[in-house]
Amino acid sequence: MTTAVARDPQLPKFTTRVRERADAAFLYVGSLTDLAVQTVQQFRRAPVERPLLIAQMDQIGVRSLSIVIITSAFIGMVLALQTAYALADFGGKMFVGTIVSLSLVRELAPVLMSLMVGGRVGAGIAAELGTMKVTEQIDALRALATNPVRRLVVPRVVACTLMFPLLTVVAILLGITGGLIIAVSSLHVGANEYLRSVIEAVHYNDLASGIGKTFFFGFSIALIACFNGLRTSGGADGVGRATTQTVVTSSITVLIMDFFLTKLFLFFF
Q1: Quick check: 42 and 152 in contact, CB under 8 A?
Q2: At what angle do helices 109-134 and 204-230 cross, to 10 degrees?
Q3: Where on the phi/psi map is residue 49: left (φ > 0), alpha (ψ -120 to 50), or beta?
Q4: Within a domain: residue 27?
Q5: How many angstroms separate the Cα of 7 from the Cα of each of 10, 17, 67, 184, 250?
Q6: φ/ψ bin of 202: left (φ > 0), alpha (ψ from -120 to 50), beta (otherwise)
Q7: Domain of 74?
Q8: Among residues 5, 57, 137, 262, which one has the fewest Cβ atoms lying within 10 Å of its Cβ?
Q9: Are the beta carbons of 75 and 172 closer than 8 angstroms?
Q10: How far apart, in whole angstroms, are the C-alpha atoms of residue 71 and residue 75?
Q11: Is the Cα dihedral 239, 243, 244, 250 positive or negative?
Q12: How far apart are CA 104 and CA 170, in angstroms?
C-alpha cells in the first residue's frame, strides 16, 4: 500500500507531460500549416525574384552535388555486390541490373538523397534564418514593409521543390552507373546485358513514383527549416536547437511521407 501511495503522485505528472507534449505537437503542426498557406499565397501573388531564386538553387542544388555523387555511386555498388552475394545460388548475376535499378528508382535514390541533402540544406536554412531572427534582421525587414515570408521563405521553398527532383535523377543515374562498374569488374556481367536488364525493368510508372515523391520531400524540408529558423529565440544556443530540431524533424517527416506517398502512387500507377 505504501508503494502504491508513493507512486500515485507520479501519475498526474506523467499525464501532464504527455498532454503538454501533445499540445505542443498540435501547435507546431498548426503553425507549420499556416506558414505553408502563407508561402503558397505569396508565391501566387507575384513571381519570385529571379536573383534570389537562382542563388538558392545554386546553394541547394549545385553545392549538394558532391554529396549526391558520393552517396549514390557507392549505394549502387553495394546493391550490386549484395545482390550477387545473396542470389549467387540462384543465378542472381543476371538480376543485378534489375534489382539495382528498381531499388534506386523507386526508393533508395529519392529517400537517401532527401535525407542526405535535406540534412545539409535544412540545417543551413534554419541556421541562416535563426541567426537573422536573433539579430533582429527579420524585424528590420518588417519595419521596411517587406514581407519576410515572401523575401526569405518563398525562394528557399521553391528552390528546394525544384532541385530535389533534379538531384534525384542524378542520384539514379550515378547509382546505376556504380552498379554497372561492379557488375562488369567484379561480377563478370557484360555491360550490354546489365544495361538491357535496366531498360527492361524500369518503366514510366517507376520513374513517376520515385521522382514524384521528391517534390513533396523538398517542399516539406524547406518549410520545416524556414519555420524553425523564423521562430528561433535565445541567441546562439537557440540557433543550435533550431538546427538540430530541423534535421531530426525533416528526416522523420521524409520517412513518414515516403510510406504514404508510396501507397498513393501504387494506387494511381
Answers
A1: no
A2: 20
A3: beta
A4: no
A5: 5, 16, 51, 66, 37
A6: beta
A7: 49-268
A8: 5
A9: no
A10: 6
A11: positive
A12: 11
Domain count, the chain: 1
Give this prediction's pTM.
Answer: 0.89
Q: For residues 45 and 39, what is the distance between their CA atoms, to the nearest angstrom?
A: 10
DSSP state of 90: G
128-176 pLDDT, tens digit each: 999 999 998 998 988 888 899 999 999 999 999 999 999 999 999 999 9
Q: What cell does 177 get? A: 552507373
d(CA 1, CA 112): 53
Q: Is 145 helix (H, G, I), strand (E, B) or coil?
A: coil
Q: Would you say residue 153 lies in a domain? A: yes
Give the whole-angstrom CA distance, residue 65 versus residue 62.
6
Instruction: Report pLDDT for 24.
Output: 87
CA-based Rg of the chain, rounded to a whole angstrom?
Answer: 23
Beta-carbon neighbour count of residue 153 at 10 Å? 26
**d(Cα 119, Cα 113) in Å, to the nearest integer?**
10
98 in a domain, yes or no? yes
d(CA 154, CA 167): 20
Q: Which grid coordinates are listed for 71?
A: 552517396
193-213 pLDDT, tens digit per residue, is 889 989 999 999 999 999 999
